[in-house]
Design goal:
Layout: E1 3-5, E2 8-13, E3 16-21, E4 24-29, H1 40-62, H2 64-67, H3 75-90, E5 111-112, H4 119-122, E6 128-132, E7 135-140, E8 143-144, E9 157-168, E10 173-175, E11 179-186, E12 191-192, E13 195-200, E14 206-218, E15 223-225, E16 234-241, E17 253-255
Antiparallel strand pairs: 1-2, 2-3, 3-4, 5-16, 6-7, 7-13, 8-12, 9-10, 9-11, 9-14, 10-17, 14-15, 14-16
Helix pairs in contact: 1-3
Length: about 260
């Protein structure tokens, strides 16, 4: 259904689709299901796009408490674009099958969930990630408060949250419950000591490590967090395939589906 957006229309109305491109109204015919013929190349491209949107959706859901509704308007599209790129580079053009390497998803590293408030603007020394014998270590180096680790005006506490989102590329399952760890940093000390977070992770999985900064001041009874639509630093600081072959573990894994209810 088309909706009014200022002087323009957006959406479908009858046999037409209304869009706004670079400030101009664009009208095109609405595709009719079953009438458009797809070439094998187009079908493979659509499959890659569908897989990218699926991974992106489950990633966003896994860090939903970090995003908290405070992403920029283009975040979903930006994330999908990078995922499509990663998948395209890992796909055999003849068979359409995927062969992932350790760094197949490295294009995601440094992705900002809100590009209006980059994590790198708040923390000069970004998290370092290492894996050794199935143990993932995320290290935030020592920082100087208000110099290399910045606090917004009138805030006194920062909650650093690290999330580890796991996906199985061989069958596209993901963990039902994302793993996360938190540390609280106060402004009353000149130096933030080195912080380490450790996670046990399985072999043969896509591992995405995200870090969010949530700032607060003190209210009459409790902390009041000030993050909002324009300020919510969060970043994917590592994206890699763990070596080896996945073996069953104690985590609860769920099958990822390509069809979802509309996002609110």
């Amino acid at each position: 259904m088309a909706r009014k957006d200022g002087n323009f229309l957006r959406g479908a109305l009858g046999p037409y689709v209304y869009r706004v491109v670079r400030g101009k109204q664009v009208v095109s015919m609405r595709p009719v299901r079953g009438k458009m013929k797809q070439t094998p190349k187009t079908k493979k491209s659509n499959q890659a796009f569908g897989l990218a949107t699926m991974i992106g959706r489950y990633l966003r859901e896994s860090v939903i408490n970090g995003i908290n509704g405070y992403s920029d308007d283009e975040m979903n599209n930006r994330l999908t674009t990078l995922l499509v790129q990663s998948l395209a580079e890992s796909r055999d053009p003849q068979t359409g099958s995927y062969a992932f390497l350790e760094d197949s998803f490295s294009t995601l590293e440094g992705f900002e969930f809100n590009r209006n408030s980059k994590l790198s603007n708040q923390m000069a020394s970004e998290p370092a990630v290492a894996i050794n014998n199935g143990i993932l270590t995320v290290t935030i180096p020592q920082n100087q408060i208000d110099f290399t680790f910045k606090f917004p005006r009138n805030t006194f506490v920062c909650r650093i949250v690290v999330y580890v989102s796991l996906f199985r590329p061989e069958d596209w399952f993901t963990t039902k419950n994302v793993e996360s760890q938190t540390v609280m940093i106060t402004r009353n000390k000149p130096v933030m000591e080195e912080q380490k977070f450790t996670f046990a992770i399985p072999d043969g999985c896509l591992c995405l490590v995200s870090t969010f900064l949530q700032y607060a001041n003190y209210g009459p009874e409790d902390m009041v967090f000030i993050n909002n639509q324009k300020f919510n630093p969060g970043q994917i600081c590592a994206a890699f395939i763990t070596p080896g072959v996945f073996q069953d573990d104690e985590r609860l894994w769920i099958k990822m589906e390509k069809i979802f209810r509309p996002e609110k």
